[in-house]
Amino acid sequence: MADIKNIIIIGKVGSGKSALANALSNSDEFKEETVDKEFESEKIKYRVIDAVGLGDIKLTKEKLLEKFEEEIGTYIDEDVSQIFLTIEGKFSESEKSLNEFLWLNEYLFDNKVLDYTTIIRTNFPNFRNKENCEKDIKELINFFNDNGKENYAELNEKVLKKEKIVHVDNPPFNENLRKKSNKKLLDYLKKCSDGEPYRSNLSKWLTEKYPENERENKTVLDISGQKLKGRLNLKGFANLRRLNCAGNQLTSMDLSGCKKLVELNCADNKFASLNFLKSVSSDNLLEQLNISNCCSLKGDLQSLKNLTKLETLFITNTNLDGDLE
């Protein structure tokens, strides 16, 4: 069991995420930016993380993914006990943010996030009334059961029908309601405390094949064609010089610990952007890069500007444009 339980709060901009984080941690430290805070309840240690808001019309999906990786990537690479998905008000107003959440499920959580997701109905005035809460749950299930909402089938089965829903109200100036919401949330978390936390299949595979205490001496790593999915964190490979991870279904990588990397072949994967190259240190030694056949790649080549020693670039069959000038 992890020493600390990570709780990530995800939801639409303005859906009460920060107020929820404050109520949960019994603090006022959460405003609009991503913040994390540790606290303890009944000898159980928690860390609550308020993630970047969904549904921002100014952000493309690729930019949203980039922000999530920058702000909560570290926590995703660790064990995650719960995802709290905030929904406020009318369900129809949350559809854009829900679609983004389900897209992030594929690109950050290898399609497993719903197994660890609880919907939090924020700003729900009658949250202490069991009958009103049950009525709201039924309406939520019916809404997502409507024709044309097949993409919510898994959400219905894994979250709604299992009634993994908590109703709260966290007005900032009503200490009494905040305390009651806090108790309801902590009681729920305690009930979930014995469950297995989320850890990606890729993280488990990498730990099994390459234990952390054996990584430092690796200079060449070939994990091509292993059907690996999701985010690859190469923590501990401090002396790695050549990496071949081509022919998988990787959606992102953290290369911040690979300061001696000279050759990188990550062709034929599912990267949505080149944001993972920002994790490469400014004094990197990378000379050869192959990102060919990454058909989901979009954007321009500006992310390569920090690769000052780059001599060879393979870039066929992508949707990238522009140049490095």
The CATH first-level class of the largest domain comes to: Alpha Beta
Across the major sheet, the strand order is 2-3-1-4-5-6
Biggest β-sheet strands, sense, barrel:
6 strands, mixed
Note the gap between the termini: 50 Å
Classify the secondary structure makeup into a structural class.
Answer: alpha/beta
CATH fold descriptor of the largest domain? Rossmann fold
* Count of helical stretches: 7
E-strand count: 15
CATH superfamily of the largest domain: P-loop containing nucleotide triphosphate hydrolases
Low-confidence stretches: none
| SSE series | EHEEHEHEHHEHHEEEEEEEEE
- Could you say how many structural domains there are in total? 2
Q: What is the residue-mean pLDDT, rounded to a whole number?
A: 88
Q: Which term fits the overall shape? A: elongated
Q: Considering DSSP H and I runs of 4 or more, what fraction of the residues is helical?
A: 25-40%
GO molecular function: GTP binding
Protein name: 9416_t:CDS:1
Keywords: Leucine-rich repeat, Nucleotide-binding, Repeat
Pfam family, one: AIG1
